[in-house]
Amino acid sequence: MEKEILKDEFGPEYVIRVYDSKIGMSGFLVIDNTALGPGKGGIRMTPDVTEEEVMRLARTMTWKNALADIPFGGAKAGIVWRGRDDGMKKKLVQSFARALAPFVPRKYVAGPDVNSGEKEMQWFAEALGNWQAATGKPANFCEGGKCGLPHELGSTGFGVAQATKVAAEVAGLNINGAEVAIEGFGNVGTFSFKYLEEMGAKVVAVSDSKGSIYLKDGLDYETVAGIKLEKKSVIHYPKAQKLSVDDLFVLPVDVFITAALTDAINEENKNLIKARVIIEGSNIPMREGVEDELWRKGVVIVPDFVANAGGVISSYAEYMGFGPEKMFELVKEKVTKAAREVITKSAKEKRNPREVAVEMAKNRVESKMKERKSAFRA
Question: Known catalytic residue: 76?
């Protein structure tokens, strides 16, 4: 049985369960709050996705979109996906899309998430015959001069790099030469590395599911990316010290970027962290109690929904019909502004940065909520 959905003054406005008995498609959509605009959030496709998980993620999207200052509300969707061929996956995605037709795109706009990317977003939009039904679509999927902006362009990692630069400045570090460790080398970790290297940062360690590597003199992005293109682990990097995944967390670096697992920083390793700055590129990389302990020890932390907002800002750019150049400008502008506001206020008021960020987001949502008579009336 699903846990009871918790309701408060912000939402959720809609909790939708759908099931297609013909093909066994089972999914959820939670539209948390639409005060700022249609609910925006990706479609998570995992074997054990739950209504409660989707609800928590939808609320995070409400705050993320508000803090990024884009006209989207918060939402999230999930499809139970146990893994099969692409043909079956397409059927599930398109069945899910048709089930949500009454809400899309007026109340909900889909996007990529775990196990859903540009091709799934194209399938979703095609099922409804509406180009604006989803964002994160392929770059060659166009209509009326507007084209998709897949997250594979690296918008999230680019935003993480901008947040890192701001946090380094606040911590009294020069990004040029700062030593960085990145947990994870997927889409977020890859592009965080690329753009930080261009800023002059020295990425000395990265990890993937097979292990970690460390090189005091700094790793080369093109070399690591080339190894991954060959479907090999980062541990094959020449001359780098090979470590376990856990060893990455104890390295003496200036900046630590999470870009992979939930609860990666936890009760077991929290006291071993040596980084002066932590950038949460992944969602929920540590529990709030652990985060608060590290902050109280003087670590500068950029919360996840601030640091990794580049993806949803890219979604807004695509929704508006902007191209890649304009998209990257928006990501830089909005992530930099939000990160600076949150970290500066946190330092000035001696308050946890997450608390500060949520308060700022809530104020923006509440302000809009006061302008409408009902959640279900324009």
Answer: yes
